[in-house]
Amino acid sequence: MVGTIDTNALRKASLKHNWMHFRDWRQMAEEGDPLIMVDGKGMEVIDSDGNSWLDVNGGYLNVNVGYGRTEIADAVLEQMLKITFTPRGTTTPPIAALSQKLAEITPGDLERSWAVTGGSEANETAIKIAKAYHKRNGESGRYKIISRKGSYHGALGITTWLGGRDGRSDFEPPYPGVLYAPQPNPYRNEFNSEDPSEIAVKAAQAIEDLIVFNGPETVAAVIAEPLCADTPIDAASVPGPEYWPMLRQICDKYGVLLIDDEVICGFGRTGKWFGINHWGVVPDIMTVAKGVVSTYLPMAAAITSRRVADAFTGPGNIFPMTLTFGGHPVTAAAALANIKIIEDDGLVQNAERMGKYLLEQLKSLQIEHSIIGNARGLGLITALEIVKDRSTKERFPSEVGIEEMMAKKFAEHRLVLRPRGTIVIAPPLCVKRDEIDRIVNTVDIVLGEIELELGIK
Amino acid sequence: MVDVYDTNTIKSSALRYQWMHNKDWTQMGEEGDPPVIIEGNGMKVTDSDGKEWLDVSGGYYSIHIGYGRKELAYAAYEQLKQITFFPSGTTTPPVIELCEKLAELTPGDLSRSYLNSGGSEANEIALKITKAYHKRRGENGRYKFISRRGSYHGTTSSVMWLGESSSNYGLTDFEPAYPGMLHAPSPNSYRPEVRGETPSEIAVNSAKAIEDLILMHGPNTIAGVIGEAVAQPPGAVVPGDEYWPMVREICDRYGILLIADEIICGFGRTGTMFGMDNWNVVPDIMCVGKGITSSYLPLSATVVSDKIAEHFGGEGNTFNMAVTASGHPVSAAVALKNIEIIETEKLVQRSAENGTYFKNKLNELQQDHISIGDVRGIGMLLGIEFVKDRDTKEEFPLAVSDRLTQIFKENGMILVASKGIVTIAPPISITRDDIDEIVTKLDISIGSLERELGL
Known about the structure:
The structure holds 2 protein chains of 2 kinds.
Chain A: H1 7-17, H2 25-31, E1 37-41, E2 44-47, E3 52-55, H3 58-61, H4 70-80, H5 93-105, E4 110-116, H6 119-136, E5 144-148, E6 178-181, H7 196-214, E7 219-224, H8 243-254, E8 257-261, E9 285-288, E10 300-305, H9 306-310, H10 329-344, H11 347-368, E11 372-378, E12 381-386, H12 402-412, E13 415-416, E14 422-425, H13 433-453
Parallel strand pairs in A: 3-13, 5-6, 5-7, 7-8, 8-9
Antiparallel strand pairs in A: 1-2, 2-3, 4-10, 9-10, 11-12, 12-14
Helix pairs in contact in A: 4-10, 5-10, 7-8, 11-13, 12-13
Chain B: H1 7-17, H2 25-30, E1 37-41, E2 44-47, E3 52-55, H3 58-61, H4 70-80, H5 93-105, E4 110-116, H6 119-136, E5 144-148, H7 166-169, E6 181-184, H8 199-217, E7 222-227, H9 243-253, E8 257-261, E9 285-288, E10 300-305, H10 306-309, H11 329-344, H12 347-368, E11 372-378, E12 381-386, H13 398-410, E13 413-414, E14 417-418, E15 421-424, H14 432-453
Parallel strand pairs in B: 3-13, 5-6, 5-7, 7-8, 8-9
Antiparallel strand pairs in B: 1-2, 2-3, 4-10, 9-10, 11-12, 12-15, 14-15
Helix pairs in contact in B: 4-11, 5-11, 8-9, 12-14, 13-14
């Protein structure tokens, strides 16, 4: 494969015709980018010049079973030789089986799945369901959605406006009815506290305050990730144990639905099947993507409790929404094969074990490097927060270009790792101990070099 | 097919655990639905009881090359054995090749593609690019979008407010609406919203209505106009020939971007590669989906002109948006094979030729059936509108559409009548024999309906 590719021609075509995520094509052209990947196995990917790279975060924290699992390829081929679409008003065996499987592995009474192709769509769907649910119950005034500042829930209509901090002025005006609550981030928070429990309680109370202030009869739902996974400020910050049970209780108290965004945290990422399992809480709607199919194909779902779904049956109650690729049989077949690998290979357990080991290593790095302000995580979502000054927690100003410096140095070591704000280290669930050692050693070297260059001891 | 399916188990799983599009699971259960589809070939699919169905809707007007093309399965398989995703900041060969192919196929200076997984996403991105484009040029006040009533542009929370009236898609469930969505008349010659007798007059006045809307709101508040070349929801409304060139000119005059939603019309559906090619109009942004892979896998693209893309290169200009599965190598590999089939088998040409044949057959049906008020469309995107009274164009009660849908089903067709309108959009690869078979079944079905209604 490698030998047959004309890298220069492809690169030129990519620079001219391919609109890549977050990349500037002029800069890429100057730097000889982009890399063109042609093969992969586990955490390792091979570029068109034959170089091997470690894809530290497995795409965007989504290639959970690792690259190169031929079982998924086989499942896709088998399904594509049968039926490749679900005609109107019909179903297909894989989507029925996947829906049932999701009901089995998700907690509590979560049982009915609206399948889509990506996390943004899943969250868009969840919010539409939440609004329509209240309408079905005669509570037409409930349309506001509470998210937490700094969170990420997608890039489409309303999801663009959930969470977030900056970088959205291009897309004004905002979607009406989105409210913002504080994060329960133990390291950086709005409560001048360093006690995770106190922060958790105050952050949950802030959501209650927001509900009461706006009027409960106007609030449709609260949406949150079990822990922020890959965001510039709050990545991998684990809320105190009080947070989620309190959120559940507050939502119940005011008739507000709780939407749990498990797009990144789901399918073993945190060392349990779903992130929220750490706190024994059952949401009303759960959204999944990425890990559900390790993005071997585009697949996601919004999974609702029986209570929510039941509002949409009976004359005149149908949920009015169609997505062409929702419930696609081939992506469902891929998801089933992917979930089987997670089960057969014990990847949830591996994530727990390897996550503990990784966090230990990162915490020892913190002792060595004064620019590490905080090392944290849960399961295989971990992060190092880089600061200019540990005592003030001040960050490096953007002129220093520390993210670019790091990405470049990681690339010299053949690691694909492009930090945004924090260094998020969230490898595929199949990660092995020696791969963690390689990542940690490289981070150690790179941070040492940077400290030297910046004149920091 | 050697597999044995336990139909009842699969059905009960689907009824309990799967949330199907626009369906009520209680009602489906009572009616013995849903059929479990296990196989497909051309325009036909087979359910687990061995019953064969004609998918006259071709999925959602999306199975261009028909079911059962093994080449696409092997194209996916080959790619899945190489690389199945891309590390952050990198790309893969099939994605690049597809972007290059799209630049070649699309008209004018459309050149750079933002790939994604579905039509709604493609349109959402088009809106975001449009707004950001105006911002990059210092025109911060442009945020409004004009769409036409009777169109459909998706179901995620910005695009669902474009086009169609709220009653059709239950939008009241999702209030409040996204700000800045303006609606212009549909250039529908059968039920005109503007003054005019002929398709030309209606086209001209519909285009002028867009200009009026722009002037009323102030051009410096308008970001884009979005439309399907041939609107599917009102049953394949083909505008008069003046319409699209005029809309293009109006957009240019006021510095507004023209977004062509080619999610249904693209890849030969209307007898040309893209719907806008029927009028030689080059939009600023084109959105494609469905037919790009014949829906074998999820893929869509937002294709923009160089004029727009150039504002997003250079420091500080990067477009701030990412969706995980966009630019997926496996979907791209399938799209490339699908496009290759469309080209080598000359399916665009076939769509044009068979479309004319098909439409003539439908016109003949109209002569035999008094309930057919109008037959319209172009290529393999055809529409039939049923009316209670041809002279007054009075509509049937909604229940008649439901009944007609049921009769179609009884005759082995997957085809939906909605508000008296039926859109016919089977694979563009189908043969004249297939068309004759559909026409015969339509004839029988419409005859049954008319007998039941005493017409």
